[in-house]
Design a protein that fits this description.
Length: 94
């Protein structure tokens, strides 16, 4: 699970950056074989804590490691880093 706080302060720019993150992350499904499931969404109530959240599932920690270095994921990650101010992550097993 990953949460991001966007850097932009203007509402239209924040909305555009959030939509771009969602679109780019969703584009990884079917491209990065390690992704079992992927859900990504934006805050809908104006919460000041986090703007975008990703919940993704992988077969195991090895699959997660392969996902993290996949070129398509690295390209999306570079874009995300360019528009966010903060990131929070947690990896859990259910």
């Amino acid at each position: 699970m990953v949460s991001w706080r966007l850097a932009a302060t203007e509402p239209a720019a924040r909305a555009a950056d959030a939509a771009a993150i969602v679109e780019r992350l969703e584009s990884l499904v079917g491209v990065v074989p390690e992704i079992r499931t992927l859900q990504v969404g934006t805050d809908v109530v104006g919460n000041p804590n986090w703007d975008v959240v990703l919940i993704a599932d992988y077969e195991d920690l090895d699959a997660l490691a392969r996902y993290q270095v996949h070129p398509a994921h690295e390209a999306v990650g570079a874009f995300i880093r360019s528009v966010v101010a903060e990131k929070s992550t947690v990896d859990v097993q259910f």
